[in-house]
Design goal:
It is built from 7 helices and 4 strands. With 151 residues, it is α+β, with helices and mostly antiparallel strands. A 4-stranded antiparallel beta sheet has the order 2-1-3-4. Helix 1 runs antiparallel to helix 3, helix 1 packs across helix 4 and helix 4 crosses helix 5. It is elongated, with a radius of gyration of 20 Å.
């Protein structure tokens, strides 16, 4: 129950690989996926976490083994946070950059298609009159921000 069945180094390596995999996958799936979870996204997230559990901790169900895996994930996240704070290029690579969806009342259809954002989502973000928007941006966090034209 308490002692890990898998070696400490192996567990740290496994957890680090899973963390890196998830970091890459979430970066490649786009900003929209991170911003708001639909019920389908939540189901996928729960299934993926269950599937990756064994890859991360192996055949180990011990309390210490689970805590070691969790600590490795938290430590990896802290390292990535520090690295992206100090290195702008790495921050852009990992966190991404905002995408302009609307500029001076004109919708950028290519950007909307690339980011899989619908006009309904623009309206939900507060853009009731797109023609009156100075800009609308899909932030790296997945949130849509908008600004109205000055009167």
């Amino acid at each position: 129950m308490w002692l890990p069945e898998v070696g400490v180094v192996e567990k740290v390596i496994r957890s680090s690989i899973v963390y890196t995999f998830l970091l890459v996958v979430f970066r490649l799936t786009g900003k929209r996926q991170v911003g708001a979870l639909t019920p389908f996204d939540l189901i996928v997230l729960l299934i993926v976490s269950n599937v990756l559990q064994n890859a991360m901790i192996g055949p180990d169900n011990s309390v210490l083994g689970g805590l070691l895996g969790a600590c490795t994930i938290f430590a990896a996240n802290a390292v990535v946070a520090r690295l992206t704070f100090y290195d702008r290029r790495l921050e852009k690579l990992i966190d991404g950059t905002p995408t302009r969806l609307v500029h001076d009342g004109q919708v950028d259809e290519e950007a909307m298609r690339r980011e899989l954002v619908t006009r309904a989502e623009l309206h939900a973000a507060g853009l009731f009159e797109i023609s009156q928007a100075r800009f609308a941006m899909l932030e790296a966090t997945g949130k849509i921000t908008a600004g109205a034209k000055r009167p």
